[in-house]
Write a structure and sequence with these properties.
99 residues; mainly alpha; 2 helices
């Protein structure tokens, strides 16, 4: 591929040099990004307990979690023979209409 640029050796050199510089910059920046430690977050509530501000949204001032006493719904009852018979009739009627 470089043979195509033989009539412009300065462009070939410029392309090679700019590619090398770009690779070095990308590798350097990615290495710095990976090795830097995350910044420490400041304490917004001003107290000694930094975890106190991280209360769940559904926790009221008294400490009760809303929705904790919700009972699960019972399972749906099985389809009766009547529903199965209606379904079979609809399928038969649909198949009878097909040419």
């Amino acid at each position: 591929m470089l043979a195509r640029f033989d009539h412009h050796p300065m462009l070939t050199a410029l392309l090679a040099l700019s590619t090398a510089v770009l690779v070095v910059v990308v590798i350097t920046l990615s290495t710095l990004l990976i090795t830097l430690s995350p910044e420490a977050t400041s304490n917004t509530n001003g107290g000694d307990n930094p975890g106190a501000a991280a209360a769940p949204a559904n926790l009221d001032a008294g400490g009760e979690i809303y929705g904790s006493d919700i009972q699960p719904k019972p399972a749906e009852p099985a389809q009766s023979d009547d529903a199965l018979a209606r379904h079979a009739e609809m399928v038969a009627a649909y198949n009878a209409k097909k040419p």
